[in-house]
Amino acid sequence: MPLFKSIIEVVSSTLAFALLSYTGVASARFLQSDPIGLQGGLNTYSYALNNSLYWVDPLGLDTWPANSGTVTSVFGPRPNPLNPTQQQNHRGIDIRNPSNQPVYNPRDGVVTNISPTSTGANRIKVVYPDGVMCEFLHTAPSVGLHNKVSEGQVLGMSDGSGNVTGPHLHMECRRCPACPKEDPRDVLGIKPLSCKP
Ligand SMILES: [Zn+2]
To answer: What is the mean predicted confidence (pLDDT) over 119-147?
Structure first.
């Protein structure tokens, strides 16, 4: 089975993005990004969707994002933890992550947002070469905007920021910029079995 790999290069001087995909031998393509790609919501990644050479993970070895494998709240409708008489749509999953515990990046990507949410939760958003994008909340960032981040790299530390009943990792993912949020375990194909020791 051929193994493909891809690197995202961040051209920090111009804030333009480029995708470089290669097979590990000689075949390579260089994809120039849209110069307003950042303001345009990273449409640059749509180029990758048509590229048969971009990185895939056929073995499903993406890294689980926390030391704990425990999912404390699943995706979908639930009572609001802060007001249990109200229903809310939980657009991600919650993973046990005590204060000051790391959040690991599940696969190679680029940081596209590190701003807090409207409710004060520290947030790190990462986009991946196939167009998948994930957000990691209640986590103080230890990476910078536009940083290239590798699989397993620490994105930040759990800080209990925002409206929470206690420190944890809230993670939400979508398969493309216009796609609906789905259970991150389905989007990434990751399971707690691959969590760090
Ligand atoms: Zn949550």
So the answer is: 97
CA of 54 to the centre of ligand 1 (A): 31
Q: In whole angstroms, give the CA distance from residue 13 to residue 97.
A: 36
Q: How far is CA 75 from CA 45, 173, 183, in A?
A: 26, 11, 6
Task: Kindly give the distance from the C-alpha atom of residue 24 to the centroid of ligand 1, in angstroms, as a whole number.
Answer: 39
- Domain ranges for the chain, please list them: 5-49, 71-194
Average pLDDT over residues 176-190: 93
pTM for the full model? 0.69
Instruction: Compute the average pLDDT of residues 83-92.
Output: 93
pLDDT tens, residue by residue, 47-58: 333 333 444 444
Q: Which CATH superfamily is domain 71-194 in?
A: Glucose Permease (Domain IIA) (2.70.70.10)
Cβ burial of 96 (10 Å; 0-12, 13-18, 19+) is middle
Q: Tell me, in angstroms, the distance from the centre of ligand 1 to residue 85's CA.
A: 17
Centre of ligand 1 to C-alpha 11, Å, is: 33
